[in-house]
Specification:
322 residues
Amino acid sequence: MSNGSSITQFLLLAFANTRELQLLHFWLFLGIYLAALLGNGLIITTIACDHHLHAPMYFFLLNLALLDLGSISSTVPKAMANSLWNTRAISYPGCAAQVFLLVFLISAECFLLTVMAYDRYVAICKPLHYGTLLGSRACVHMAAAAWGSGFLYAVLHTANTFSLPLCQGNAVDQFFCEIPQILKLACSDAYLREFGVLVVSVSFVFGCFVFVVLSYGQIFRAVLKIPSEQGRHKAFSTCLPHLAAVSLFVSTATIAYLKPPSISSPSLDLVVAVLYSVVPPAVNPLIYSMRNHEIKDLENALRKVISWAFFNTGKLPVFFHK
């Protein structure tokens, strides 16, 4: 195959050569996928149906759950189907769509996590200005900016990646279509263009991470000045889950896209890919459900949602009630 125009499909990485292990991978991924659907679905339903949770922090958490559902749904179902039906194939348009969706949702999640750090910074360091800086319109604009930025990034990277001539066959060494693995199929010099764009993009993502770290530096300084131990515990409990989610996401994604070729191996690539594309959507609901005062509201609201589903025929409430 001399170029991308002659490729009609790609061959994804097979988890195993034996049928028993393929089925084991199918059931493992099915369990993870169902856990992600259940956890994020409960967060979305609970926040959407209880007007007491229509605050900026929960609005951003709802958007994060939507992005997590989308990102895990763009990769895991196809991997499950391939394991179940003992195939490796994905069509050329399907591969392009997978790259677009994954870059779109992961980029948007990165920007949203940065916005969530700003939300915690304002809530703790500038509480008197919280209603002004994070009103309903500002929250919608920031969330829309995160989604829009992710969309533009996805268009740029997908168009750039799939415009490259491919000279190294059609076997992708990953269980989904991932840009670094597709670049390995490009002709010797052609991949440098997209690699340069990747470096700039990941550097920008790293800049977002630096912003998050600096925000939390200010937050922790402010928290340590709180005289009440209960107040410090409450402040830390609302911030640590978010910091854990950011650290897991950014570290694994950065390793996946910027690790030197000298340390690259199929097993390492597979582990890193699972850590940034599969694990965060599954564990984020657990991270944000760690026991603290605010998340207890989710537990109470969930009981209200169940009651509402069976006994209430009214309309869903609207966000940001005054």
